[in-house]
Specification:
The complex is a heterotrimer of chains A (196), B (320) and C (543). With 320 residues, chain B is α+β, with helices and mostly antiparallel strands. Chain B has 7 helices and 12 strands. In chain B, helix 1 runs antiparallel to helix 2, helix 4 crosses helix 7 and helix 5 crosses helix 7. In chain C, helix 3 packs parallel to helix 5 and helix 5 packs antiparallel against helix 6. The longest helix of chain C is centred in the N-terminal third of the chain and has 36 residues. Classes of the chains: A mainly alpha (196), B alpha+beta (320), C mainly alpha (543).
Chain lengths: 196, 320, 543
Amino acid sequence: MTEGNGKEEFDLGQRQTLLMMKAFLCSETLFFVALIIGFVFFRHYTTDWAESQRALDWKTSGAYTVALILSSLTLNFAVRCYEKAKKGAFLVWAVLTAALGLAFLGHQIVEYGDLYRQSITMSSSIFGSAFYTLTGFHTLHVAVGLVVLSVVFTLMTFDKLRCPSSGARAAEYYWHFVDVVWIVVFTIVYLGGVVV
Amino acid sequence: MLTIAKAEHPHLLLGTSPDSQAIAELLLAYGAFAFLVLLIIGGLLVVMKKRYSSTSPSPEPFLEAQDEGSKLEVGFAVSTFLIVLILSFFSMRTVNKVGADPDVPADQVELRITGHQWWWEIRYPNTDVVTANVLHIPKGKRLLVALESADVVHDWWVSGLGRKMDAIPGRTNYFYIESDEVGTFDGACNEFCGAQHAWMRMQVVVQEQAEFDAWLASQAEVAREPAEETARKGAQLFQEMSCATCHAIRGTDAVATVGPDLTHLASREIMLSGKVKYSRENLKAWLRDPQALKPGAHMPRFIFSEPELDALTDYLDGLK
Amino acid sequence: MLPPLPEPKTSLPSPFQRDGLLAWLTTVDHKMLGILYLVMALGYFLMGGLEALAIRIQLARPEQDLIGPETFNQLFTMHGTTMVFLALMPALIGFATYFLPLMIGANEMAFPRLNAMSFWTTLFGGLLLYFSPFAGGAPDAGWFAYAPLSEKNYSFSPGLDYYCMGLMVTGIGSIGAALNFFVTTVTMRAKGMSWMKMPLFAWMIFINSLLMLGAFPLLNAGLAMLFLDRQLGTLFFLPDQGGSALLWQHFFWAFGHPEVYILILPAFGIISEVVPVFSRKKIYGYPFLVGSALVITFLAFGVWGHHLFTAGMGKIVVSFFGFGSLLIAIPTSIKLVNWLATMWGGSLRFTVSMMFAFAFILDFTIGGLSGVAFAMPPADWALTDTYFVVAHIHYVFLGGTMFSVFAGAYYWYPKICGRMLDVRLGKAHFWLFFIGFQLTFMIQHVLGILGMPRRVYTYPVDLPWYGSLNFLSTSGAFLMGLGMLAFLWNLYRSLKHGELAGKDPWGGTTLEWWTESPPPPKNFETLSEIRSRDPVLDWTKSP
C-alpha cells in the first residue's frame, strides 16, 4: 500500500467505479421505495393488521439495528485506516464490521424462525407477505453485502487492491446504503407498528 | 349543444345519455382541434418538401440555424400551455358532470352489477330480481350503479348510456347509467379478463316507465312450473345433474350464484353474453358441448343423452 | 499535441485476434455488442411481426375460428411484450451502445464487461420468455398482466412465471446498460466537449439512462411481488385474501409510463441527428431540445394514473393526473418546432433515412394527438381499451420509435458496415411499410370510435363496418411484411455488394463521421480539442 494523504487521488477508472455505484444505489433505492409503499398501503387498508404487527419484537430488532449502524461506522474506520496504511487497525475494524453484519443477518434469520413458529408466514396473511418480502429483500442485500465485504477485506489484507481502492470505497457505499435502507424500514415497519 | 340520434350499436359519438353526450362533445371539440394541428404540421411538411428540396447531387455546405430559438420556442410553450389550461377546464368540467362520488349511501343504488368470467350479473336492489347479461331500465332516469367483480378485473361499457367503469375485485365502483330514448343498446366488457373476454357482451333495453315496471314485476316472479312431461323431467334432471351447484332458479331449491341466474332465461334476447341469440337450438347446442360454443368457459361438459338433452332444453326453454 | 484519449488500463482482447463465432460470443467491444443488440432486436421484431400477422389474420373476418381464444391471448401478450422489451429497447440500446462512445470521442464504454453482461442478460431474458410455449404455454394475460387475472388461480400455465422471470432478467440487463451510458457520458467525453456541445443523440441516451434507472426498479418490485404470489403463496394481488388488484396497476404503470418515454427519447435523438444532416442546416434550438427532454423525465414519473382513469379513483385524483398528462404534452410537442424550424430554409435531401424522419414527424404527431385525447379523463372513459388506444400506441411506437430506428438504420448502416444500403430497395421498404402502416392503424382509430374493444379474438358479425374495416387493417399488415422483406434483403445484400461508404457519406458533423467505416477497434487514435457541436465540420473546413 502506498502512502495516502488526507485527499485521496482516484484515477479515471476508479472515479467511474464510484460513480456507477452511486447511480446504482439511487436506482436500487427506488426498488425498496416500491416495496415500502406496498407495505404502508396494506397496513393502512387492512383491518386485522395490528394483531400480526404485535408479534414483532421491536426492542430486539432495535438492538440489532444499532449493531448494523455500528457496522457502518466500523467499516468507515476500516477503509480509512487502510487508506492511511494502518494495516493492523484496518484488520481490527474489518473483523468487527463482519461480526456485526453477521450478527444482524443471524438475528434476521432467527426472527423469521420465531415468526414462522407463530404461524406468520408469507402466505398466512397480507402482513406476512408484505413483511417477509420487504425485510427479506433487505436481508438478501445484507447477505450479498457480507459476501462482497469478505472478498474485499481479503483482497485488502493480502495487498491485492490499490490504495486508495475504489472497489473498497464502492463496497463501503453499498454497505452504508444497506444500513440506511434498514433504518427507514425499521422505523416504518417496527416503530411505525408501535405507534399505529 | 348537439342533438344526437340514438344508436343501437356501440358508437362513441352517438348516445342517448347526457353523460355520453357530454363526453361526445368533448371528443368532437378535441377532434376538431387535433385535426387542425395535423393539417398545420402536415401542411408544413408538404410545403417544405416542395420549397426546400435539394437539387444538388452532393451535400451542400452546412448552414447555421436561423437563431437560438428562444422566441419561437417560448411562444410555442406559452400557447400550448394556454391550450392545456383550456382543455383541462373542459375536461374537469365534464369529469364533474359525469363522474359519481365514490362514497354514496347504499340506498341510492338502483342497480348492482357484478362482472364474472364471462357474464354479467345484474341485481335490482329492494326486489328479488336477478338477471344475466340483459337488463332493462326505465327511460329518462339517472340510475346509480354499484359495480363489482366476482373474480378478475372487468369493465362495463355501454357507450350509448354513459361512461365505462372498471369492475375490480375487492372494491365497489359507482357510475351512472341513463337514457333519454327507448331502444336496445349493445355493450361489451372492456378490460381483458381471460379466454372469453371477446364474448362478454351485454344488452340494455330502455323502456317507458310503465313497460319497465311490468318487466320488473314479471322478472320478480318465481320460475314457471314446468307444464309438459319432458319439461318436468328436465326440472328433475336439473337437480340431479348438479346444475344447481352453480345456477339459481328462483322458486326451486337451486340458489347458487356461481353461474348466471336462469329463472327467466328464455325471456332474454341473447345468451352466452352475446355470443348467440337466445333460441331453443342454441340452448341445446350449449348444453351438449359448452366448449364448442365458448372455449374456455367455466361450464363443465356434461355427457347428456339425447332424451336428457331434450328434457333439460324443454325445461329451461319454459323459463320465460 | 493533446494527450491521448482515456481508455481502459488493461488492454481489451481485440475481436480481430480471434475468428468468427468465438469473437462474437466473448467480445467486450462496444461496437460488436452494439451490432449484437441490433441483430437481437431485428430477430425479435420479426417474431413480434409474425405474431401480429397471425392476430390480424384471425381478426380479418368476423367470428372467425382460425385461431382460438386461448392461442390468440398468448399471441397478443407475446406480441406486446416482445415488441416493447425485446425489439424496441434493444434496438435503441444497440444504437446507443455503438454510437455513444463514438459521438463523445471515446474509444470504449466505461465498463466494457458490464456492457457484455448487459447484452447477454437481455438476450437471456428474451430466451426465457420464448421458452414458455415449450414449457406449457406462453403468458396470456396481456403485456401488462393485470392482477388477479395474472395470478396462479386464473392463469395456470407457467407462461406468466416465464413472463416474470424473463422480464426481471431483461430488466437487469437494461439497468446495466443504463449505468454504463450514465457513467460513460459523465466521464468520457473528449476534451473540449462540454455538456452543451454533446450531440443530441448522446444527450437523449444520457437522459434516458436516468429514466431507466428510475423506472426499472419499480417494474422489478412489481414483478417480484407477482412472482412471489404465483410461486410462494404471498397475497399481494389477491383481493379475496387481503391483497389489492389495483396496486398491481399502480406499480406496473409507475414503470410503464416512464417506459414509453424510454422508448421515445432515443428516437428523438436519432431524428435530431438525421434531420440537420439531411437539411444541411444546424439543429434549431439545441438548448430547448435538451431542456424539454429533462422536463419530460421529471414529469414522466408523475402521470402514470392516466392508465387507471377507469379504475374508479376520485375526481380530484383523476383531475391531477389529467392535468399532468396534458402538461407533459408540452415538452414532447415542442420538439416539433425544433425539427421543423431546422428544415425551414435548409436544403432537404430525401435519402431513405430522411424519408423515415419525415414519416416520423407526421406519425408521431398523429400518435401524440391521439395520446393527448387520453389525457382528458372523460375522453379516456370513452376511448380507453378500445382500438383507438391500439391505434395510438402503434402510431407512437411503430410510427414513432420504429420509424426513427429505420431512419437510424439507413443513416448509420454505412458507418457500421462500411457500405451503403441500396436506395431503390430502401424506397420500396419505405413506401410499402409507410402505406401499410397508415392503412392498418389509421383505420383502427375508427374501429375504436365504433366501439371495438381491444384484445378480443373476434367480434360479432352483425356489427356494421367491423368486418370491412378489420379486413382493410389486416391488408395493411401484409404490406408492412413485404416492406420488411425488402429491408432484410437490403441489409443482407449490401453487406457484400453495397457501394463503399467512406468515412462520411452524408456530410455528417458529429464525431462518428470522423473515423473509418467501419471504425477500427480503437475508434480514434487522437482527437483535437472539441470546439463546437459540429467538430467534423470545423475540422474539414480548416485544413
